[in-house]
Amino acid sequence: MRDKPHAEDTPTPDIWTGRATNRVQWLLALVGAACLALGIKLAVDSAWTSSVPALAMSVVGCIAAGLLVLFGTLAFVHVDLRLDRECVEVRCGHIGLPRRRIPLSHVAGADFTAVVTPRQWGGWGYRWRPEKGTAVVVRRGEGIVLNLWDGHTFTITVDNAESAVRIIRARLRSITPGTAA
User: Fold this and answer.
1) Do 96 and 80 form a contact (C-beta atoms < 8 A)?
2) What DSSP letter does each residue of 13-71 carry, written as one string?
3) Cα–Cα distance for residue pair 19/90, rounded to 1 Å
4) How does DSSP assign 84-107, residue by residue?
5) Which percentage of the chain shows pLDDT scores above 90?
6) Rounded (10°) CA dihedral 120, 124, 126, 127
7) What span, in angstroms and rounded, lies between the C-alpha atoms of 53 and 118?
8) Tens of pLDDT along 16-25?
9) Pairing mode, strands 99-103 and 153-157
10) What is each CA distance from 120 to 21, 28, 99, 109, 146, in whole angstroms?
11) pLDDT tens-digit profile of 51-108?
């Protein structure tokens, strides 16, 4: 009797899902909410009577900065990866935007990477670097690197990335490149 089954012995599920979360971005979202609240407080409770343009610019600036930071961070608090028989789908944040759907017929290969950092990609979020490709980075840690047939790469930070790579490779064995799956 074996303690651990080999990767070849375990069946691949029809749908594999994974997620990566970054709790630090909730702090940034709170900063955005605070800016938004400050802008609203200035608009409602202003005692400025001599300089209306300065008050208007302060209110608009606080509200705009608050909304930008709030929605910009909430969009990348987590990333969801869904892998089915036909495609890899990546959704970001609570609304699921931005979203990318990559048919497996466009994938040449998949690699596991033990460490993906925001520093490698220039920060958190949906990133593009000409020399590296495209990535969705929400935290430091393990990830998947998809090598596409057009020569580009797509990197996703996700928990249990090694399992996802194993499943993608198993599915790629049965797909002809450039055809619909």
Assistant:
1) yes
2) PSSEEEEEE-THHHHHHHHHHHHHHHHHHHHHS----S-HHHHHHHHHHHHHHHHHHHH
3) 10
4) -SSEEEEEETTTT-SEEEEEGGGE
5) 48
6) -30
7) 39
8) 999 998 888 7
9) unpaired
10) 18, 21, 21, 21, 17
11) 788 888 888 999 999 998 888 788 888 899 999 999 999 998 877 888 999 999 999 9
Distance of CA 107 to the CA centre of its chain: 19
| This model's pTM is above 0.85 | no
Those residues with Cβ within 8 angstroms of residue 85's Cβ, 6 or more apart along the chain or in another chain? 14, 104, 171, 181
Q: Tell me the mean pLDDT in the region 170-178.
A: 76
What letter would DSSP give residue 177? Answer: T
Long-range CB contacts (within 8 A, 24+) of 159-165 = 159/18, 159/19, 159/20, 160/18, 161/18, 161/112, 161/113, 162/112, 163/16, 163/18, 164/16, 164/18, 164/81, 164/83, 164/110, 165/110, 165/111, 165/112
67: phi then psi, degrees, rounded to nearest 5: -65, -40
